[in-house]
Amino acid sequence: MNKKSSPIRSLAVGLATLLVLVVFAYGFSVTNINFEETRSERRVASLTRILRALAHPKIFDYQFESVNVEIPFYLGCPEGGVEVPDVDRSGAFILTSAGCAEPKGTIVIEGHNFQGNSSGPINFIGFSAEAPEGVLLQVGNFQADAQGNFQVEVTLPNRQVRAEPQAIRVTGRVRVGGPEISREAQITWEKIVETVFMALLATTFGTMIAIPISFFAARNLMAEVRTPLSNLSLSLIGWPLGIGLGIKISQLLSAWLTPLFNSMAVTFIGAIIFPVLGFLFIKWRVSKQKEDAELQFSDRLVNLLYTLVALILAIASILFLGKLLLQVGSYLTPNKEVPLYFIRKFIFQVGDIVAMFVPVVAALVSGGILGGFFGKIGQMISDKLPPARGKILTLIITPIAGALIAVLIMQGVDWFYEFNNPAITLQWPAITGALTGLVLAIITAPKQSLPVGIVLYGIIRTILNGTRSIEALVMAIVFVAWVGLGPFAGALALALHTVASNAKLYSEQVESILQGPLEAIQSTGANRLQTIVFAVVPQIIPPYISYTMYRWDINVRMSTIIGFVGGGGIGFILQQNINLLNYRAASVNMLAIAIVVATMDYISSVLREKYV
Amino acid sequence: MLEIKNLSKVYDGGVQALKNVSFSVEQGEFLAVIGLSGSGKSTLLRCINRLIEPTNGQIVWDGQDVTAASQDEMRLVRRKIGMVFQHFNLVTRSKVITNVLAGRLGYVNPLMSALNRFPKGDIEKALSQLDRVGIKEQAYKRADELSGGQQQRVGIARAMMQEPAMILADEPVASLDPVLAHSIMQYLEKINKEDGVTVLCSLHFLDLVHRYADRAIALNGGVLMFDGPPNKIDDEKFREIYGKDAERVG
Fold it and tell me: Residue A76 sits in which domain range?
């Protein structure tokens, strides 16, 4: 290791040092480093002012009793001097050392009969043609002694001289009563509560979506998912068909059922009957279920029909339940003044959310049902048919699937770019999709299984990484445009960011589970769903809890600044206070943030210790 | 009843774990699989229920070609083959009874079991299987509260829940002390003799093989070196299986 020092080596070291110096010199110039400025008196004074204001958070406030005393004053002494006005000496009064003075001149102001220990500003009131009601210019402060007397020397402002009298006003204030919680502190409390709940909702909903996604983003689970091409193509055809069917079913159902919703009694009965009916139906079907391996094509078709009936019952149940909540909610909310108004509003909102998500959920579930059914048929083609016939069928199906998917993708792209040209959105993608499908069908051997899982894993990972790289602050801007200023936009932005980050974190936990139990559960004949429920889920509960707590913690911190772009919460007023140079109020906001973050940290560490 | 024909397995990295292994097992036999670590014992056992996909060859079980079975058919095959592991492979954060009930997963309705609903009969059966291995009172403890020997008994109970026709035991006693090892082996013996379940058990210690197995097969570097009764393993055979420098212990 002992290298001999050589001239070349020394030269290299010297050059490297020089290079580092140049890099840093450039860095200094780019970042505008300028310490001269930091020493300037003006800067130091403003820094001192801000730091002192921040050190005095305006948590408490006092009631003041104030008295205004005003006397006329000439800025610019008129020829022939000024009359000394009579001063009413019965109450508080002030005297000036002169009745007139030149701009920037100094005078002495005396005050008497003020309340003991009162204090307040001394203002010069300048009148002009533009401001006939006068402009207040603070020229000093006073602090009266115990007897209510004071004497202060003030410098007059540099204003235009006027022949008419202007005025000097002294406002004497004295505290009445004890300290009270300031208005700023009250607002801060309201907003910090808003912030914490914003973070709570964003974390809850984000996590609910992130957990299922995380299984699809876990390499160890997805690597095992391999299907023959016939299965893949048919399920690719089945999914869009199912999604279309689901939307259609939910539209038709809500159209048919809407007349029934006029009566609350009917809605109530429906909200009971349909779920019960659906439950009994599903239970009956489950008890009749045969093993997958024993099912013939006709069995599967019958199964599909039964599943669709169950889906219709489920959608009807949800529609009834949602409508019932909406009706109960609006029935209970005649005015805002009643206590527990927020609970009634919550019922209404939940009903609204349910109604809004029915088509989406119906579409996804029905997509899954049809995709699964078609996929099973594809699997049967590969498993049961002789290879030659399977190959011919695959050669027919795959181009259709390719064309369908390509057209659907281009329709989505068209929404963004508005081509409005069927050649681009319909014909070309159909042709390229079909050709790709055909090539794929030709080159894959019969029964060859394709790594569908890994492809899906890659797609989901890419989407998650893309979404995660966009800061919640930027997402908030988009959501503000959609749902308006306020905490709702912030909560949505945080929820979306939570989905992206936590799905990734969770999936990494799934990837690091022990393989042993997985293998043991698989060896019992468990299918994929059972394997996940029995071998994966028990292993990932502790890290999932831990990451969810951590995300709540992060979301509380994020939500403090998401208000900067209009996302509601405490950031909204923090930014306002900073812009208005109201540093004492800003200091209260920051104090609240610090307390909440520290508390969150403590609570989450305690909970983690307890449950993990 | 189980026939392995020319089974080979080459892993992705190019390692050949099994080379043309052929043998057959009769119903009710207790077959020991011996060999050094890395000789392909675990791979062989896992190929039989296709936890590992064999590269070549055929496995015929009960007249069915396991290697050609579809995913749905594999469920029916696997549920009749119990498996016991060296590291027990229990889901340690779940309760003992849940681990045992997992043995029924190949039989029950997937949806209902996903909601953790099992038929009443299965729960009773699970308790009686735990009773059989002597740890009924531990049923509602978390699996990781149990000692190693107890955990392996849970593993056996789980396998027995499958009402298996065959049990694959992958070094079931390698992480237990000798006393516990015998007690676990005795459970396997009991299952074999009383219930007529075929047992394929990979083992390290020859004295265990002599004591419990009807027949032994030996692997070295993925090649079948020996197939016959354990007492036919003389010093020469022993060195063929375990290498020139090996010495008998125990």
Answer: 63-181
